[in-house]
Amino acid sequence: MTTALETRNLVKRFGGLVATNDVTISFQQGMRYALIGPNGAGKTTLVNLLTGVLRPTSGSVMLEGQDITGMSPFQRVRSGLARTFQINQLFPEMTPLETVGLAVSERQGHGREWWRLAGSKSEVIDEAAAILERFGLTDAMGVPTKVLPYGKQRLLEIAVAIACRPRVLLLDEPAAGVPEEERHEILDIVSGLPNDVTVLLIEHDMDLVFSFAQRIAVLVNGGLFMEGAAKDVAADPRVREVYLGEGGHG
Amino acid sequence: MTEATMAVTTAQAPAAPAARRLLIASARWRWWEFAVWIAAFAAIVLLPRQLLLLNEIAILALFALSLDLILGYAGIVSLGHAAFFGLGAYAAGLIAKFGYGDPLLGLLGAAGCAAVLGFATSFLLLRGSDLTRLMVTLGIALMLQELANRESWLTGGADGLQGVTMAPVLGRFDFDIFGRTAYVYSLCVLLVLFLLARRVVHSPFGLSLRAVKLNPLRARAVGISVNVRLVAIYTMSAAYAGVAGALSAQTTQYVSLDVFDFIRSADVMLVLVLGGVGYLYGGILGALIFKAMQDYLSSVTAQYWQFWIGLVLVILVLVGRDRIGALFSRITVPFSRGARS
Asked: Is A76 in the same domain as A137?
């Protein structure tokens, strides 16, 4: 089993506050992980460090053995690390087709081509159409994203990340705010993600965490509290105390 | 699952033909676009007394198109776009003054100078908010104006650049006092650069610019190097503005310090507000309205015409162009349906 993503002694300080405290963790290729922890545990900071939004105070981030600590977010995406956002980050005036087509075209390296019409490369069109079909967005592919129902927008959020063809995918609360009746669509998509993609799910919903994750990492006060197989973490009394004990696992 | 993924991508997805049609449809020429250009060329024979004014409109339209490329497509605000217009004007004027009177050569020289300045200053705009960008662009234009004022041995300073003599366009068409050659020349340059801009905004690069404008965070998250794209479009926009300045210098055969004026930068912004941003025709429509209003109002009330332009601007912003546009399309939709079927 090879390591897809790992951090080594990762520290992030904001003034006197230690938001990430010496986190060393590795994510194995193709496994499903969940990152949990009470509010303020440092989940968002860790995600920002992994994706390059923030630079660590010390320590390093490695993607498939390559040190990516100094890379900016877009370079990390090109190296195979994609993400979704907890709050939709889409292009409101663009259609799902344009959005996914853009991501595919960028990944295939056509993004700087200014002499060709967008939509004239069949590799881009075919792949974008296939992704939209897989996500059930074909019917809505031609309407502006901003008029889509929230659940569809959440699906598009994941579809764009998949269009980057990542080897590691960070899902930040993918089902957050989705109405109950549209929820199963998101869960089906998440559980059907390609097996060779390493997935790290940041999630509050314990049902989703335990139905999805093979391994769980628990953050408390910025530090890695424990990391282990899902059932071991669920059974650990200390975890139940600091996190699940708050009534999360219903 | 990998195999499954590969399978869908190699076989053509059923939705692919529809997707292709949708993507390409946005770049299709509409009937009114043809109408705009036919009208612009028809004006050569239909409005022979207005050719000098029309030439000014064509140049202002190109200048506004240049601003639209960064404002409408990349979301970069500028209050100093006259920096590139002015540099292009002086470059073209000086090239002609020092014996290279061929207009197209002057255009190339002006575009090159403005592009170099645009490229160099684009890096100042990558960081910071809209307010920073407004101030930085404004500052650059002011600095250039002062530089042109001081180096009067080259630019003529406050007296303006004299002795700009132009050779005939393509060696055949002399500039005349009615502005006929001037207008045809400016209009052709506008058309060529417009077609290029239209190509660029509908390309994958153009799509990525829209993405950067709409949501830079997500644009980075699909692997777009936002800074490189912004530098590229800013450089292109600067070259366009330089060409507009060159056209102005060549067709009036004179350059003065006011090419760098703050008023010029503000006017071109106003033109885009009048015509609308982000669809390329805003510059042309806005320049037409602006110049027509200026021409009419200054003949009616020579001193106070800016009052009325200001009033129109305030109404436009308060009422909103969308509502005016909706009213307009209620009137024209039956007609456009008829034209399509």
From this structure: no
Q: How far apart are CA B6 and CA B9, in angstroms?
A: 5
- Smallest CA-to-CA distance from A74 within A21, A122, A99, A111 is with A111
Q: What ipTM does this complex have?
A: 0.89
Is position A131 within any domain? Answer: yes
Over the stretch B61-83, which tens digit does the pLDDT of each residue have? Answer: 999 999 999 999 999 999 999 99
B20 within domain boundaries = no
CA–CA distance, B152 with B304 (Å, rounded to integer) = 33
Q: Is A105 at the interface with chain B, CB within 8 A?
A: yes
Q: How many domains does chain B have?
A: 1
> Average pLDDT by consecutive 10-residue portion of chain B (341 residues)?
44 80 86 93 91 94 96 92 96 90 92 96 87 92 92 84 83 83 95 96 94 93 93 97 96 91 91 89 93 87 79 81 63 48 35
Q: Do B214 and A110 touch (CB under 8 A)?
A: no
**Residues B84, B242 contacting (CB under 8 angstroms):** yes
| Residues spanned by the domain of A201 | 1-80+166-250
Q: Do A147 and A174 sit in the same domain of this protein?
A: no
Low-confidence ranges of chain A (pLDDT < 50): 247-250
Q: Of the residues A164, A197, A217, which one is the last residue of a structural domain?
A: A164
Model pLDDT for residues A99-122, shown as the tens digit of each residue: 999 999 999 988 888 888 888 888
**Whole-angstrom Cα distance, residue A56 to residue A9?**
10
Closest chain B CA to residue A132: B15
Residue B62 domain boundaries: 46-261
Q: Which of A68, A100, A112, A133 to mutate to test the interface with B (most CBs of B within 10 A)?
A: A112
d(CA B226, CA B212): 7
